[in-house]
Amino acid sequence: MCSAYIHTDQNDQYLGRSGDHNSHLPVPERIELSIFKEKVKERIVKETAAIGKIYENELASATLSEAALALAPLPNEAKSSLNRLRRQATPPLPKSSIFNVPDAYSITTNGASFLFSDTIVRKKRVILFATDEQLRMLFSATHIMMD
To answer: Which of 43, 70, 72, 79 is the most buried (most CB within 10 A)?
Structure first.
């Protein structure tokens, strides 16, 4: 594994380097794998789909060489670090009931409204989530079962 690093500022201007990069040849499989991992990480931060599903979809759609596939971790091996990444991107739970519901939780991925109601009842906040389609199904049902 290469221990060389290049340091840049926020504008990608070169600041310096550390380590020695002359002691090995480039490994194309590791480069392929790095590109694959970056795509997975980007989707995990942006999407709410299951981590295993995202990983498997990206692995299936990636055009990795056999050597890169052999080096790629299995979904359950990568899950721990990917879960940590998603937790860091997820906003923390509010300490108070006075907060704005972020768009990520009030609008569906195709832009439809998901936050049905946000009211205060007897000094307690009640938030209801539903799409128009879910409400149509609920109101047209002949039987409603609750838990």
So the answer is: 72
Rounded to two decimals, the pTM is 0.56
Q: Are strands 124-129 and 115-121 parallel, antiparallel or unpaired?
A: antiparallel
**10 DSSP 8-state letter:** T
What is the rounded distance in angstroms from the CA atom of residue 59 to the CA atom of residue 53? 10
Q: d(Cα 147, Cα 134) in Å, to the nearest integer?
A: 18
Distance between alpha carbon 53 and the CA centroid of its chain, in Å? 11
Tens digits of per-residue pLDDT, 29-43? 888 888 999 999 999
Torsion, CA 9, CA 14, CA 18, CA 23, rounded to 10:
140
d(CA 22, CA 32): 21
